[in-house]
Structure formats: C-alpha cells, structure tokens
Description:
Blueprint: H1 8-30, H2 37-53, H3 61-76, H4 86-89, H5 91-101, H6 107-126, H7 134-162, H8 169-182, H9 208-211, H10 213-233, H11 236-259, E1 267-274, H12 288-302, E2 307-311, E3 317-321, H13 329-335, E4 345-357, E5 368-371, E6 374-387, E7 393-397, H14 418-423, E8 440-442, E9 445-451, H15 458-466, E10 471-476, H16 485-501, E11 505-509, E12 515-517, E13 523-524, E14 533-540, H17 547-551, H18 555-580
Amino acid sequence: MKETTVNKPNLLVLGLGVIGVITAALIMLQKPLWGYWPLGLLLSFQLLYLYFAHINKLISASYKYAALGGILLGLGHLEQPLAYLDFIGMIPFLLILKKYREGEIARREWVFSLYFGLVLWNVISTFWVMNTAFVAGMIAVYANAFLMTLPWRLFVFVEKWVGRKLNLLILVSFWILFEFGHGEWEISWPWLTLGNSFGSMVDWVQWYEYTGVFGGSLWIWVINLLGYCVYLKQDKFYKITLALTIIVPVLISLFIKITTKISRENPRDCLIIQPNYEPHYEKFNVPAYIQIDHFKQLIESKIDSNTAYVILPETSFDPLNLTDLKEDPVLNELKKSIEKYPRTTLISGLGGYVFVIRKNPKYLEGEVVQINGKDSVYCVANAAVMFDKGLDYQIYYKSKFVPGAEIFPYSNFLFFLKPLILKLGGANMSWMSQSDRTPFGQHGDKIAPIICYESVYGSYVGKFVKNGAQFLVVMTNDGWWDNTPGHRQHLNMSKLRCIETRKWMARSANTGISCFIDPLGGVIEPTHYDESAALKGKVYLNDEKTFYTEKGDWFLWIIVFTLFGTLFFYVYQRLFIGKRA
C-alpha cells in the first residue's frame, strides 16, 4: 500500500481540521449553550477524515463528488426553502457508484467516499442534536450516516449476486424501504427522510394528502435519476422528461392548493402558552410554584369567555404521579386560572410516572413495588392530559420515543451496552406507552394529542385522524437544541402533517415556535425562539379523511412489488434464459 503523499493541499486540510477541532472544543467548554459550534466541530472532523481516510487521493473525483452531494442534501434539509437542491443531491453519489461499477475506483474508495458524503449530509442537517447530549448526539450523526450506506451496499451486493447491471430503480426501492424501516424500529430516526425536506416548500407538495412523504422521496429520486441520465447522455428525451417530471407535480400541487377550500366551520378559540423555560438549566430547576405563577399570568393575559381550549407544551410540569392527578396540588392551582370560564378546557403535556403490574412483559425493567399486593413496575411517562370539567381527565402516553434519550433500543439484546448508555445520559427506565391512537373527546370535539417527536411520523399522526380526530394539537419542547435549525425543521414537519390530514393544528412549544397551522400548511402568527408568549387564535374542526389518512403508506406496496418483480425478472433471465444462451 502506498504511503500518503505529504503536500501542501494535504497539510492545509490537516491544519484546518486540527485548528477547527481545537477552537470549537475550547469554545464549547466555556459556553453553557453551544448554538452552531457543534457544526464547526463536526466539519473539522470531516477535514481530518479526508486526510486520514483517503489513499493517496485527497482531492480525487470520488471525494469531490461526495462532498458536493453531502452539501446539497444537507442544505436541502435545512429549514430554509432549499428543498429543490435534493433534486440533484444524489447525482454525485450515483457518479461515484458508476465509477465503482465500471472498475475505475476500488471498493474501499467507494465505501469511504460514500460514507464521507453521507456524514456531511447528516452534519449539516442535524448537527444540533449534539446540543442535547454531546457524545450521544455525535454517535447519532455518524451512526445514521452508516445506516444510510446500507441501501447502496445492498444494491451492489444484489447486483453481484444476480450477475448483471441492475436498473437503478432497484436502488431507489431499497432506499425508500430503508426510509420506511428507519421509522418503524427502535433506533428510529426518520428526520432525514427525503420527502421531509419539502416542509420548507409546502406549495410544491400539496399532493402529500395522497402519498405522504414517501411520495416526495420517490419524486426526488426520479428527478435525480433523470438528471444523472441527462448528465451522462445529453439526450433530448431525458431532458424533456426531466423538465416534465419537475414541472407537472408542482403544477398539480398548485392546482390542489387553489381548489382546496380551507374549512371555516366549527371554529374553536384556542389559547396557546409558550412559557420559554430553557430546558438544560431552567425548566427542571425552577421551583414549581414560580412556574405556576408564570403560566397563570400568561393564561390570564389572554383568556376570555369564548376560549374553548388552553394548550400548554410538553412536560409543562414534571414529575407528577400520573396514576392519579385529581388531587395534585400543582395542577389544582393551575386550573384556578380557568375555573371561572365554564366553556374552557385545559390540555397540557405532563411528565411523571405510573405503576404497571409486572405481569405485562413489556415492563420487566425498572423498580418493583407492591401495589394492592401485586408486583408493579415504576414506569416513567411523557403524557398529554385533557382536564374535563370537575376532577375528571383523559390521558394519552407518548409512544414514539427518541432512541438513546428516552429508550434504550433493543436492551434485551444489547444489555452489554447498558453501562455505556448510562454514562452517555441515555434512558434505562421503562416508559409507559399505548398501542392505540385514541383522540381526546370533549363535547363532541375530537382532538389528536401529539407529543414532540411523534409529529415527525406521518402515518402515526394519520391514525389519530382515522380514529376521528378533528384537529391536531402538538405539544413540544424544542429548546434542547438551542437556537439552531432544529426547532424550525421540526415546525416544517408539522406543516406536512396538516397537509397529509387536511386538519388545523395548534402547536405549543415550551420554547421554539408556537403557532397555528392551516390544512394547506400555512403558518399563522408564529412566536419566536426564546420568547415567552400567550398566543390566541382559532382552529376549525372538520371530519374530512384524506386518501393518505385512510390508506396510510399504501405507496410502499408499489415499491415492494416493483422491487421484487424486477429482481424476479433478473433472476429468471440469469437462471433460464442465460443457460439457454
């Protein structure tokens, strides 16, 4: 193996990487909140990766293509309206794959350059996760990029097994099935699903009410494949097809937007509260009585006799005994703010604990206590609660958890990682969840209580609507990421949920962006980050169920049948037609 060439470009990259790492690390050690500094640190690591990972080809075409692809996809998934960059973001990776398939580069260079570009995509788009937990966030960035290599590597593996050049639509099928699977297992992180990028450009994807975000992923991939063909062949047919593939879905979307009537019937006055407690140092340290006074002041500043719902953010108060909230002094004090308004209902996110009988195998971990003579397990819970008149209440338990932070994924199989997870600040408790997506009900109204991370999942939210929800309520705490693109990306995904379901949404953030969102994804009266606010507005209830709400991710079955049908065709040709030839 050749030694790495020491020349000026190499030394420049090495020097910039070392200086960047040292500078970012020193500043982050001094600051309580890091903002964008994790981005500088991770980009510096990428420069060091370039220096140490290449094989005498620091600025080879493979790494240049990978860097270009990573930057385009990274920028396309930020909160700004740059989603159209995804239309060409995969082309550089396809060119690297072409070089490998034709024997121009070795497998090692293909794998390392592919990984380099996918890491860059994750770094630019989601560097802010490190503001929640430094080491765990860094692991998430690099591990997610590794998982993204799997569809590409599976495509190459299958191609070698079949013994001929596969159609790249097989790669597209593998990728979209990967995106779906990445939202269903315990290490779930669908944040960078390609179709999510259009949360910043909702006018282009009003047809998500039929396909959901995976339709957007397919659209992006088809345009990339056509762009790749145009780049290689400069064929007029491909150019015309590419133009139509971009323009026609946009025109369809604009037509849907123009012809869709936003419901203005069944109005409900809502009051959204944004208390603005910084979660790392304030939210769980400020005494409860001070927070209650602050909440009461915000509520009383805007509430009136027409207010139907007062909505508080995720874990507004924590920890509470969620098994019995009727006599909780904190909540009883809070409810005094609305008790003189008989038409007003309080909806709040709450954190706390419940006790579950041990016979349920899902809750074998955790502290065992005796309740009514039965072994019960102490389970933590992140809940949404709606307080009816009097002492009754309805409760919903968050059931989509952030890997590492809230759950220890596959703990039965990865038990040997338990000490590491605890050191990294990860979760090692049993979390209460529920299998059904039952809306809250109040005087005939049906409300979908959606807690934070759950709003990232289209089919998950759609199940609330399928079960009768007439409008959506998102309770979140987006302050964990500091004032970075994370909380704005999260808002963009809420906009997509409104389009998929054609429902109004009231979004309450501890800090971040609280607002109302209409069924076309339009944001109404958004608050600002790091702002304490009481936001008054209306939502309009409707019983509409979109095609996507009724059918869910039906689109994936087309992908599955296409994939296996095409693979069967290739295998049949090899085993039968090839032998005859």
